[in-house]
Every structure is written in C-alpha cells, then in structure tokens.
C-alpha cells in the first residue's frame, strides 16, 4: 500500500520537479547563508585583530601621545553577537553593521552607520532558508496535495473506491494527505540536520522548537490545501484558489502592512539627532569653554575641581563637548529607539494576518536578527561607548600621561550573549496549532458530506 | 479575410471573458490594488520630496548662519546633501527602500548615504513593496495566466479546436485573435494607471518636463510589451499541452521560477561571485592607502617634504613662514586631494564589483525577461542603484569643492603665524554654491539598458515567431 502511495506521489513530473527544486533551493540557501555568516564573523574577527595590531604598534613605537589624541584614533571594535542561526534566517544581519567600530567622540555621529550593501540585491528580495521555508514550502505543499481529490475523481478511482464499504475512498484520500505531510516534514528535518551539521548548531530544545514550529507551519499549509480539497471542486479551481491564497498571504499582506506602517510612522528622529548633534558640537567652539566644562561636570562631579586649563584648547573640553552634544540630542535618540520598538510592536500585532509573516518573524526573532535584537546591540554599543569615555576622562582631567600598561587597560567590548527569544516561537506554534485544529474541524465536516459526482 | 477571422476570434474571446463574473472581480480588485499602490506611493513621494526640500533648506540656513570662524572649523561643521526622490519613484520605488537619503559632507572624510527609511524591509519586502511597477511585474502575469491558461488547451479538451480547424480556420489566425484579445485586455488594464500617473506628475509641484512624459510613455510601451511576452508564453504553453490542468501547472511553475526563485538566487550568487568590501574593510583600505602616501604631521614624511620643497621653490622662499600664503592651508588642500583621490579609487572598485554583480545577472536576461523588464523599468523611472550611486558621487564632488573652497580661504585669508587663533568673516562662505542634485537625463538613465532592451525584445520576438511556426501548427492539428 505504502509503496503504491509513494509511487503515486513521486511519479508525476510536476511533483518530481517541485520536490527537486525545493530541495536544491533549500540547500543553496543553506550554503549561501553559511558563507555570508562566515564573512560577517570574519569581519568581526578582523576588526579585533586590527585594533590589537594598532595597539601593539603603538606600544612598540613608544613615546605615546596624550590620551586625547590616542582616543581620537582608537576605533574600538564591537560585535553584534549573531548565533549561527543567523545564517539560516538572516533578518537584518546583512544590512546592518555587525562589527561597528566606536571611539570616544559623540556616539550620535557613529551609531547610525550601516553596512555597505548592493541595493539591487536587496531589491530582489533576499534568499535564505527562512525564505525557502516561509514562501516556497507552501507552494510545494500545494503542488503535492491540492489536486489529490480532483485527480482521483477524474481517473474514476474515487468512484470505484467509494463503492467499497468502510469509507475506503476517504481513507485513501486522508492517507495520501498524511503521507505527503510526513514526507515533507521528513524533508524539513533533514534540511535542519544538514544545517546543524554545516553550522554546528547545538541539537538542544531550541533546535527541536524550531523544527516543531516548522512542522506546525507545514501542517497548517497542508490543512489549507486540505480545506480546498474538501470543497470537492475541479482541479483548476483548486490550483487557482491555492495560488491566490498564497499570493494574498505571501505578497499582498506584507506589502500592505509595509504601506500602513510607512504611513503611520513618518518621523525620522535619527536624522534629526544627527543634524542637530553636529550643529551643537560645532557651535561649542564659539562658546565659552569653561561653561561647557561646568555643564559636563554636573554629570561627572568627580571632575568638578579639575575644569580649568591654560591655552586655547584642551582635550578634556573637546571630549566634554562631544559628550554634551550627545546629551543634547538624547531625546531624539530615545525617540528613535521608541519608534523602532513601536514599529516592531505594530508589526507583531498585525502580522497574524499572514502565517508566512508570523513564521518568518518568529524565526528572525529566535535567531536574533530582528529589529529588537539589533536595537539591543546598539544599546550595548552605547553602553560600551560610555565605558570607553569614562575610561579616558581621568587621563584628560587629571593630565595623566599614558603608558604602555595603560593601553592594556583599555576596555574591550564584551558581546552580550542575548537571551534567546523563544516566545515568538511558542506564540507562532500556538497560533498554527489553533489554526490547524480549526482547519481540521472544517475538513472533517466537509469530508462527511463528500459525495461522488 | 484572415484579419476578419482573427478579429472574430478576438471578439469571441473577449465576450467569453466578459461573461465570467470572477474575472470581472479579479480585474476590479487588481485595479483597486493599483489605485491604492499609486495613491500611497504618490503620498510618500510628496512626503519625501517635502522632507528633502525642507531639510536641504534647513542645512543651507545653518550653513549661512555660522558666525565668523576659522575656515577649518567651517570645514568640520560640514554640510548635508539630501537626495530628492526621482520624479517617477511613485510608479516604481526601485531600490529606494534600501538606500539612504542623506550624506553628511565633512572635511577629511567621505560618508555614505545614511538613514534609509526603515529597517523592517528585510521582513516585509521579501516580494518588494506594493508599487504599481511591482504589481504589474509580479501579479498581473499571474492574472493573465488565470485568464488564458485554458484558451487553447480548453478548446482542445472540448473538441472545439478540432471543429474550428476542420472548417478551415488557420491555427495562426486563432492565436492572433486570442493574442489580440488579451493584448487589448492588458491595454485596458494598463491605461488607467498610466493616465493617472501622467495626471499626477502634471499636478506635482515639481516642474513637469517633457522627459517625464517620455518616461511614462516608455514605461507604458515596456509594460505593454511585457504583457505581450506573457500572453505569448500563455498561448504557447496552452498550445503545447493537451489539458488545461497541465497548462496551468506549467505556467504557474514558469511564473514561479522566473519571478520568485531565480531573481533572488541570482542576486545572491552574484554577490558571492563578485563580493564587494564591507564597510569596515573599505575604510580600512582607504585609511591604509592614505597612510602609505604620507602623513602631514610627520616632519620627516617624504611626500610632504617633497611637497614643501616644491612650494618653497614655486614661491622662491626658504621657509614656510616666508610664504605669501598660509602653508597649513596648502597642506589641507593637498591632504584633501590625496584622501579624495584614494577614496574615489576605492569607491570605484566597489562600483566595479556592483557592476560585475549586475553584469552577472544581465547574462540571464535572455533566459528570464522578467529581470530585463524589472531593470528597464527601474532605469526608466530613475530608481535603480546606478541612480543612487550617482547621487552619492554628486554629493562627494560637492563635498570636495566645498571643503577645498574653505581650504583656499584658509590658505589666503589666514596668516600662518598664529593660525588657529584667527577667524574670517562669515561673509566668505555666504556665496558657496548650494548642493543642487542634477537629476539624470533620460539618455543617461538608459545608457546601460541596451542589453536588457535587446534581450527582452529578442526573446519576445522569438516567442512570437515560434508561435506562428508551421511546426506548432502541425502539432496543434495532431493534438486537436
């Protein structure tokens, strides 16, 4: 029986082609993703090596300049700690800087930098395993299953089987659907195992959750196909209905959501921050330097006795000015963070309109490549920037010369291992299971009334 | 006579489609979608334009409002260049969601365009935004498939094809008639959105130029040709398959491969084959090249020592203090020249890599006309990455001129002795030319489009030629 069903599944040309295309695309996506991930990691490692080399070079040369000058050129590496999952679900990891370099000058002049991208490539839509699973998998499911009943009917087999007792016809149909589901799920498991081997992903509970979510997503699309099958209409209708549903969920809904969010959020606080910060910073040169230092010392009381200097310039004023300019546009920076969060919340709130979107978002959140994960990285960078600034202030205000030993004390960025965000996974799984239940119920009711025509 | 038959077939086909309520609904839905897309894109275009104008005005004001300053302070104060949206970006948004709209122009440093519109594009725009261009490129072919997949194979299945051929209707006439019907339908579908586009650009506060009109006209022709291509594909597949079911499967598969699968895989493979430098690697390369040339702060630096000797010789003096101009200003000019040249070289390398990626993709124009039409549409609308990079380069040229203008003031108006203590009147930079982005001319926009246009034209022509070959006729007879 199984042999016969397998033959029926694998013999049509369309099924063969779809399975092959899906499999090859998925493998290509895994391979390309792994490569890109490797490049990001390489970039991060190189940034650290460059910094260490410059430091070694300085030590070797001896005769170190004062801290103000050193800190001006010391662009310290940071890294967005991306898990290997980012290779499969790239999210924002490709167009954001994952190895931002930071010095003690104003943070607002540095934090909005982006990775160099080829806009044409991104315009094409991006290709990762997330895309293959969220958008191509449903099509495969449609090809394999949406015309099961109409084909059976056309060949006359359904009528024949219906003549047997014990619902043989319906059982055959359900068995065929289930077999396809098992085979596609098996394929997914194999793809994840291949990815795990290639990327050395830990085979833990999280891994199982991702696989579980994917299988729930897969089941959902099988049930969507099942509902269409249960309508007992012509094969042509089934195919068109399935492709229309896909089009609405995959293309039109995300596009419409993008339009709505763009209409809703028109402010650009980051741009405002950037324009204003540079104005404040430069105007500082024409204003009373001691007044600026006094304002600075309101936050750093420990230096309030050490504000005076002789001559027309002192590094302590220079860095204080940068700090003040950051402070002056802090409200825009906070607004920028809040805006990103609000956009993300809006998106989460509305994304249930498309299962593809829910699935994709859950994977991006889980792999730490979504908006909030990037924002968390930016906050870490901001924290590190403060650390670097506070490291150099005593040298500036106490006029301490820098020694080789001091260079080793320069704080290094500690990548913050972010807690894995698995809530979205469970939310997605819950949603899919509920929907699956709903569709199963519909199919059951419909199948009860299934008649042979 | 033959034209008469084709015309009859065409009328019959149209009548048949007109009877189908679902198709009317589909047609209406698509028109509504187009209207929504056009309207929202238009709003966004207006918004970006207003933002660009007000921001550019703001920074010009800030520039002019500076107090008397040392020119090098002014150079660090810098300036911003804002990118105006191209006139037809409401039709085809192109790469606009992925690129920044403003560049900070400052001394010693070339910044990239920053502040792209949003970060959610990676999640929401897997199939690009709902723009008119995208709906026409992506969704309309699917509708054409739905309309016409059974046009020949259905006749075959019902046996009407046999009858038609038996009474002496030539298969070619049948195809011509049906093709004409779908072309007219597509024309009717396209016309409203193009008329509204022209009306909108007339209503725009930007000056309406002939070029915009030509561009809209070209876009109309392009999209009509794109429809003809798909109609050809639908007719061919429908003629080659015996059952409507098979035509549909084949057509949807083709649509999927051409529009969904290959564009993104090719783009990804292109980037792997011709990788460009990351931000960090690019600045590292620029920095190390600049260091190699020379360091003006190092008294023993060979390049700057030679430069100094050359200057001293030119002015026939022995020390920099004796120069009639400020030596520090000259150093600034020289330093800026060197760094700009080096940056330009690396930037060009990046562009070369991007071009190589594009060239790789353009090799597939022959196989996948969607790619050709997509890129042509972006070129005509002035929204492809080439236009964006043109903005970045114009901004860089402007930066260079502005900074060198200030360095000249530094050289001539600031005394070498006690250099840093001095200021010059703010009137000195009041007349600096504003940043005025020169939009691309139509011929510039289309300069690199020959391959795309030729490939697309040729493949469509070949397709139509195949449709009227005797072989296909014979096959039709046999199948019928």
Explained architecture:
The complex is a heterodimer of chains A (453) and B (480). Chain A is built from 18 helices and two strands. Chain A has helices at residues 2-10, 13-61, 67-73, 119-123, 129-145, 148-155, 157-162, 168-199, 205-230, 235-264, 269-283, 289-297, 315-328, 330-350, 355-366, 371-397, 404-409, 423-448, and strands spanning 76-77, 101-102. In chain A, helix 9 runs antiparallel to helix 15 (355-366) and helix 15 (355-366) packs antiparallel against helix 18 (423-448). Chain A has one domain. The model of chain A has no long low-confidence stretch (mean pLDDT 89). Chain A is an all-alpha fold. Chain A is elongated. Chain B is mostly helical. Chain B has one domain. Chain B is built from 18 helices and three strands. Chain B has helices at 2-19, 21-64, 71-77, 121-124, 132-148, 153-158, 160-166, 171-203, 210-240, 244-273, 279-293, 302-315, 327-362, 369-381, 385-413, 442-445, 450-467, 470-479, and strands at 79-82, 102-106, 109-110. Chain B has a three-stranded antiparallel β-sheet. In chain B, strand 2 and strand 3 form a beta hairpin. In chain B, helix 5 (132-148) runs antiparallel to helix 10 (244-273) and helix 14 crosses helix 17 (450-467). The two termini of chain B are 23 Å apart. At the A-B interface, helix 2, helix 4, helix 5, helix 10 and helix 11 of A face helix 2, helix 3, helix 4, helix 5 and helix 10 of B.
């Amino acid at each position: 029986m199984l042999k016969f069903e397998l033959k029926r599944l694998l013999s049509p040309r369309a099924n063969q082609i779809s399975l092959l295309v899906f499999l090859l695309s998925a493998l290509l996506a895994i391979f390309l993703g792994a490569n890109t991930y490797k490049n990001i990691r390489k970039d991060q490692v190189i940034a650290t090596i460059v910094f260490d080399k410059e430091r070694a070079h300085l030590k070797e040369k001896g005769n170190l300049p004062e801290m103000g000058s050193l800190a001006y050129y010391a662009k310290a590496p940071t890294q967005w700690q991306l898990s290997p999952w980012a290779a499969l679900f790239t999210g924002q990891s490709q167009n954001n800087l994952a190895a931002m370099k930071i010095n003690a000058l104003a943070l607002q002049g540095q934090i909005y930098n982006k990775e160099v991208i080829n806009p044409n490539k991104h315009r094409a839509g991006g290709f990762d395993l997330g895309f293959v699973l969220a958008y191509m998998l449903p099509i495969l499911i449609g090809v394999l299953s949406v015309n099961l009943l109409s084909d059976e009917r056309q060949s006359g087999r359904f009528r024949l089987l219906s003549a047997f007792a014990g619902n043989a016809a319906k059982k055959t149909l359900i068995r065929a659907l289930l077999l396809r589901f098992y085979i596609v799920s098996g394929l997914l498991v194999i793809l994840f195992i291949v990815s795990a081997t290639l990327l050395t992903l830990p085979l833990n509970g999280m891994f199982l959750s991702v696989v579980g979510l994917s299988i729930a997503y897969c089941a959902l699309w099988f049930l969507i196909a099942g509902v269409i099958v249960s309508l007992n209409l012509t094969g042509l209708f089934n195919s068109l209905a399935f492709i229309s549903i896909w089009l609405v969920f995959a293309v039109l809904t995300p596009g419409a959501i993008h339009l709505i969010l763009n209409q809703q959020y028109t402010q650009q606080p980051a741009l405002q921050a950037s324009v204003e910060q540079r104005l404040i910073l430069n105007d500082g040169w024409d204003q009373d330097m001691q007044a600026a230092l006094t304002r600075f010392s309101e936050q750093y009381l420990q230096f309030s006795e050490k504000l005076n200097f002789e001559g027309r310039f002192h590094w302590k004023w220079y860095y204080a000015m940068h700090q003040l300019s950051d402070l002056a546009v802090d409200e825009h920076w906070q607004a920028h963070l809040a805006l990103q969060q609000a956009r993300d919340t809006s998106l989460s709130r509305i994304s249930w309109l498309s299962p593809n979107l829910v699935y994709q978002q859950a994977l991006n959140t889980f792999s730490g490549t979504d908006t909030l994960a990037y924002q968390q990285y930016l906050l870490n960078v901001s924290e590190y920037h403060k650390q670097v600034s506070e490291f150099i202030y005593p040298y500036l205000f106490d006029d301490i010369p820098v020694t080789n030993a001091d260079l080793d004390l320069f704080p290094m960025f500690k990548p913050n291992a972010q807690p894995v965000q698995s809530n979205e996974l469970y939310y997605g799984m819950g949603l899919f299971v509920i929907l699956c239940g709903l569709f199963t119920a519909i199919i059951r009711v419909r199948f009860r009334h299934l008649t042979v025509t | 006579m033959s034209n008469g038959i084709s015309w009859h077939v065409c009328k019959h086909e149209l009548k048949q489609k007109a009877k189908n309520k679902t198709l009317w609904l589909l047609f209406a839905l698509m028109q509504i979608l187009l209207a929504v897309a056009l309207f929202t894109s238009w709003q966004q275009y207006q918004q970006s334009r207003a933002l660009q104008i007000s921001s550019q005005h703001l920074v010009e004001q800030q520039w002019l409002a500076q107090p008397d300053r040392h020119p090098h302070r002014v150079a660090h104060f810098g300036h911003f260049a804002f990118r105006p949206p191209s006139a037809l970006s409401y039709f085809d948004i192109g790469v606009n969601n992925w690129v920044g709209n403003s560049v900070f122009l400052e001394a010693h440093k070339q910044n990239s365009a920053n502040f792209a519109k949003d970060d959610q594009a990676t999640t929401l725009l897997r199939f690009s935004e709902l723009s008119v261009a995208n709906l026409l490129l992506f969704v309309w072919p699917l509708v054409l498939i739905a309309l016409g997949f059974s046009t020949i194979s259905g006749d075959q299945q019902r046996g009407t094809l046999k009858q038609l051929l038996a009474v002496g209707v030539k298969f070619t006439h049948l195809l011509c008639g049906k093709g004409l019907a779908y072309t007219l339908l597509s024309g009717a579908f396209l016309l409203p959105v193009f008329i509204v586009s022209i009306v909108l650009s007339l209503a725009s506060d930007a000056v309406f130029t002939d070029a915009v009109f030509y561009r809209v006209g070209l876009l109309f022709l392009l999209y009509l040709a794109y429809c003809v291509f798909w109609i050809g594909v639908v007719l061919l597949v429908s003629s080659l398959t015996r059952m409507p079911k098979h035509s549909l499967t084949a057509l949807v598969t083709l649509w999927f491969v051409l529009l969904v699968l290959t564009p993104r895989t090719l783009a990804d493979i292109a980037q792997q084959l011709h990788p460009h430098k990351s931000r960090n690697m690019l600045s590292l390369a620029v920095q190390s090249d600049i260091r190699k040339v020379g360091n003006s702060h190092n008294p023993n630096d060979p390049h700057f020592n030679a430069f100094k000797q050359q200057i001293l010789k030119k002015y026939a003096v022995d020390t920099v203090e004796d120069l009639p101009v400020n030596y520090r200003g000259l150093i600034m000019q020289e330093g800026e020249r060197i760094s700009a040249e080096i940056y330009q070289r690396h930037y060009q390398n990046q562009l070369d890599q991007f071009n190589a990626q594009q060239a790789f993709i353009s090799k597939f124009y022959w196989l996948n006309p969607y790619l050709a039409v997509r890129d042509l549409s972006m070129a005509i609308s002035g929204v492809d990455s080439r236009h964006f990079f043109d903005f970045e380069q114009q901004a860089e040229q402007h930066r260079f001129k502005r900074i060198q203008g200030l360095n000249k003031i530094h050289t001539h108006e600031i005394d070498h002795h006690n250099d840093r203590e001095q200021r010059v009147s703010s009137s000195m930079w009041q007349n600096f030319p504003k940043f005025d982005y020169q939009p691309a001319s139509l011929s510039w926009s289309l300069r690199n489009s020959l391959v795309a246009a030729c490939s697309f034209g040729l493949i469509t022509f070949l397709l139509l030629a195949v449709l009227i070959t005797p072989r296909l006729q014979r096959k039709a007879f046999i199948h019928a």
